[in-house]
Amino acid sequence: MNIYNRIRKRNDIPVVALGFFDGFHLGHKKIFEVLALNAGQQKKVAFTFKNHPDRLLGLDVKYILTNSERLEFFEKYGIEDVYFIEFTDEFMQMDKDRFIREILIEKLNAGLVVVGYDFTFGYKAEGNSEYLCRRLKDYGRQCIVIDPVTYNHQVVSSTLIRNLIMDGNIQLANSMLGYNFFINGIVKKGNRIGRKLGFPTLNIRFDKDKIIPKRGVYVTNTIIDSRRYISITNVGVNPTVSKTNSIKIETHVLDFEEKVYGKKIKLEFIDFIRDEKKFESLQDLKNQIEKDIAYVKDMLCRATVYRH
Ligand SMILES: Cc1cc2nc3c(=O)[nH]c(=O)nc-3n(C[C@H](O)[C@H](O)[C@H](O)COP(=O)(O)O)c2cc1C
Ligand SMILES: Nc1ncnc2c1ncn2[C@@H]1O[C@H](COP(=O)(O)OP(=O)(O)OP(=O)(O)O)[C@@H](O)[C@H]1O
């Protein structure tokens, strides 16, 4: 897959998907399926931004996917060329008709454009999908608008999924994503208290742009060296043993003893178990973690029984 930071004039007639695509959720997936179905021999292209337009408005948005993860998804969905463009003030002020004429027609030479029902573009988001299609047809180009994709009667969106993750509603977020929400990170050294408690943990250094589930304990999968392990993860400030308020993510991998400092691991969130609490003593914390682990094992046993 080619990644372009600048938009040069193309000589071919590609099919183009437009959007930011944070999360590559079920709605986004539909767009890429339709794009592939209608591509024929033409190149499959995505036009997206490196930075979310909301950031330029001063909002500190955290993302379901980091930029490199988002690029991996484009590749996975068969995109051959990605325009990964800086959203600047100049871009923000581009009039909707100029966007269509200069970017989509003159530069990208799009034969077909696929967007979702709520796609907006151009200065003050004055252009919508209906307008885009009408104008593209005037230029003799094709355009497809995807109807809203829903899950349990709710329209799937990146904003909704971010809110679900921040509320700890991991199961619903995962259903709308179509995969398990994950956090990639590097294992760093912790304070070694976990080991003393009898529950060694891998402390994860993660990307500051990544959205983090609310403080609490979660059932997770940990992928280390391409192998998947069951684990139990705490997202929080460890109030029982620490006074800082910086959020840490640490995971206790069941039946795992190896030293993996410095390794890249992936944590997949499966379900929320409970809120993080300040305990009176380390013994109380230890007792609670024992219960948390028993809960996870019990859940796994039941899952195994159902599978047979
Ligand atoms: C499954 C699990 C649940 C946890 N729950 C809490 C909690 O409710 N409150 C808390 O203060 N710390 C909690 N912790 C964090 C522990 O305080 C932390 O793992 C311990 O202090 C070790 O930290 P260290 O690896 O930096 O040494 C939990 C950790 C795990 C693995
Ligand atoms: N549920 C959906 N069904 C169909 N198309 C969708 C759906 N959600 C998003 N799209 C389309 O996917 C493209 C990328 O949209 P975008 O990245 O803004 O995602 P989003 O989920 O709409 O995000 P946000 O919550 O920030 O509005 C757009 O063309 C948009 O219309």
TrEMBL record:
Pfam families: FAD_syn, Flavokinase. Its EC number is 2.7.1.26, 2.7.7.2. SMART domains: Flavokinase (SM00904). Signal peptide: none annotated. The keyword Zinc does not apply. It catalyses: FMN + ATP + H(+) = FAD + diphosphate; riboflavin + ATP = FMN + ADP + H(+). This is Riboflavin biosynthesis protein. It comes from Caldicellulosiruptor morganii.
